[in-house]
Specification:
Elements (H helix, E strand, L loop, with lengths): L10 H17 L11 E10 L23 E10 L5 E6 L4 H4 L4
Amino acid sequence: MARPCHVKQDPEAVAAFRAEFGKKLEDLKLPKDKPVRIWVVDESRFGLHTQSRRCWTLRGHRVVVPREHRYAWDYVYRAVEVVEGISQFQFMPTVGLDLTRGGS
């Protein structure tokens, strides 16, 4: 069975990434005598947003359900080294470009 892909995946962007990835690595001018690890990074948001969808009641009665409308988010950054499969996780209270771009 084929691996599912996102419905908004752009095949041209995938092909461009594959074609340019080797060139981008060469442009980094990494030392030839040292091993290089390639990490893939992503972040996820986990939180609470309470919502009541259905309630049972007697016919003809309308149910009023108090709804707690609050948010509480935590973010998990994860990185996986693509060759050896080493993974790292970091739990953070916020999300920011400084973590996504490696501080650059």
